[in-house]
Amino acid sequence: MRTEKKQVHWRAHAVLIVVLVAMIYPMVWLVGASFKPENQIFSTMNPLPLAFTISNYITGWTATGNSFTLYLANSLTVSLCTVVANVAACSVAAYAFARLDFAFRKFWFALMLGTMMLPFQATLIPQYTIFYQLNWINTFLPLVVPYLLATDAFFIFLMVQFIRGIPRELDEAAELDGAGHVRVFFSVILPLLRPALLTTTILTFIWTFNDFLRQLVYLSDHSRYTAPLGLNAFVDRASGSSYGGMLAMSVVTLVPTVAVFIVSQRRLVEGVATTGIK
């Protein structure tokens, strides 16, 4: 019996190892190819460079006509502003749905959840028309301002689930001391909402930094390009003739999000696990 269990145990581990190799191989290949000479990138499946070089990073950094530093700075600016806007707006909206009694609350909550099934492409043209009339095209405003209106239903739902797990007795105790809804929110709910806030911060940053379509629609000036658009511009200008530089800048673009995920992985899992989402 023990022998059979050990065999199943080793088989399961063997399958997991195969899956792990299949998942991380593209990433390893990308990093290795970025250090290969141009003529060796596609000559072998071996991800390790036979001749190590950093020329791809040197040439790729300015291959689009602008320094890639500009693209990274734009991406960080948009991502950080979006994080602040999304966390602030979603936390306030979640408190309203979880704690306040107002007319048709369940209906509005269900309607808010229904927006999660609405694809971005369905609202793209109406939103573009509005932002065009406001003269916001080719600025960062269309990428940040909508989040001030609590448009991300997923994070509102996540925070609502967390707030519902906070005992109402804490709110009632604060109200007995004369605290209003604003004081209750900032002094009672917000400190206890920290795990959900961290989850929202991490996921919002990663998703915004890697966003391509929204930024492609609203940004046309190369000086305002973000890192994903910078990679796209690199491909367009290089016309596929300099894969080394493109791969090198792809690695550079991955560094911020991978670093954020590695540093905050434990808190991310902890935050999702404590929100009541099964």
In short:
The protein is mostly helical. The protein has 13 helices and no strands.
Number of helices: 13
Order of helices and strands: HHHHHHHHHHHHH
- Cα-to-Cα separation, first versus last residue: 34 Å
Largest sheet report: none
Based on helices, strands and strand pairing, what is the structural class? mainly alpha
What is the arithmetic mean of pLDDT?
A: 86
| Mass-distribution shape | globular
Low-confidence stretches: none
Overall helicity: over 70%
Record the SSE blueprint.
Elements (H helix, E strand, L loop, with lengths): L1 H32 L21 H6 L7 H32 L5 H10 L5 H14 L7 H4 L8 H12 L3 H9 L4 H12 L1 H16 L3 H6 L8 H12 L4 H31 L5
Written description of the protein model:
This protein starts with a helix and ends in a 5-residue tail after the last helix. By secondary structure, the protein is mostly helical. The longest helix has 32 residues, at 2-33. Helix 3 crosses helix 7 (153-164), helix 3 (68-99) packs antiparallel against helix 10 (194-209) and helix 10 (194-209) runs antiparallel to helix 13 (243-273). The mean pLDDT is 86. It contains 13 helices and no strands.
What are the main properties of this structure?
278 residues, mainly alpha, 71% helix, transmembrane, transport, transmembrane helix, Carbohydrate ABC transporter permease
